[in-house]
Specification:
mainly alpha; disordered C terminus; TLC domain-containing protein; TLCD; membrane; transmembrane helix; TLC-dom
Length: about 280
């Protein structure tokens, strides 16, 4: 007869710790994967401006972030379909697929941390702080083999990141062969998806996470609870700032487009006045 050990008396699933050696293997493999992708895309992509190093790095970094968020989003959907029972108790549920997924993302954040560190500017300081918090949070989860479900909830924000990064990439790498109408339609779909996923994941999931932290506070160590609460609260504040900037940029872009259109119309009127006979 098998005897199951439960980490906490209220756990729904038995405690099945995974050896930390697996997390190290997955993290290293993920780090190498993004290192190779970075080198391959750099060798094939032509820089927009060879003299503008910061902008070229930002484009490359955004492309790698888009690749990570796209892969992570697909894997999260697969993980939910494979094990919907994790919603019964995300704190105690664990399997190798979800564990490897968290380690995969941790490997990416480690790579991105060093990439930002090598190309650091004043604007990357906030990203470095964010990555330190995320790396600490995910590493603690992997080493203890606990709280994997809520780690996946946190990583579900990457679903919105797909649209956030796609907005920039469309502006930088817009296909020349595509018509103006197809570009406009694609941009519209990305903007709609961006707002919908932002509200669902960056607001909804973060709110749910804070709520569950309060409800299940007795199941967490005081230090872990404090660190997690501060981290999620910081992310919530950053999401509000990000959403404000998103709307602000959207409005300013529309105003700028209308202004350019008005200037264009005035120029056409002036040209017609010169060309056409009176």
């Amino acid at each position: 007869m098998t005897t199951f050990f439960y980490f906490h008396e209220t756990d729904v699933f038995p405690y099945r710790p995974i050896s930390p050696i697996w997390s190290i293997i997955y993290i290293i493999l993920s780090f190498i994967f993004f290192l190779i992708i970075d080198l391959k895309t750099k060798s094939t992509a032509k820089p927009k401006d060879s003299h503008d190093r910061n902008n070229n790095w930002l484009r490359q970094n955004t492309l790698l972030s888009f690749i990570h968020s796209s892969i992570c989003s697909v894997l999260i959907i697969i993980s939910v379909l494979r094990a919907p029972e994790m919603f019964d108790d995300p704190l105690s549920h664990i399997n190798y697929f979800n564990y490897a997924l968290v380690a995969f993302s941790l490997g990416y954040f480690c790579w991105d941390f060093f990439d930002c560190l090598q190309n650091s500017t004043s604007s990357t300081f906030a990203i470095l702080i964010h990555h330190i918090v995320v790396i600490t949070f995910l590493l603690h989860i992997l080493l203890r083999s606990r709280n994997i479900g809520y780690a996946l909830f946190a990583l579900s924000l990457e679903i919105n990141s797909v649209f956030l990064h796609a907005r920039r990439l469309l502006r930088w790498y817009s296909p020349m062969s595509a018509s103006a109408n197809s570009k406009k339609s694609l941009k519209l779909y990305i903007d709609i998806g961006n707002y919908i996923t932002f509200i669902i994941f960056r607001f909804g999931v973060v709110y749910y996470g804070l709520q569950q932290l309060y409800v299940q506070r007795h199941r967490l160590d005081p230090i872990v609870l404090t660190f997690t609460a501060l981290s999620v609260s910081a992310i919530a504040i950053l999401n509000v700032v990000l959403f404000y900037r998103l709307i602000k940029n959207q409005i300013s872009r529309k105003l700028r487009t209308k202004k350019d259109k008005l200037i264009e119309d005035n120029v056409m009127m002036m040209d017609n006045h010169v060309i056409l006979p009176s």
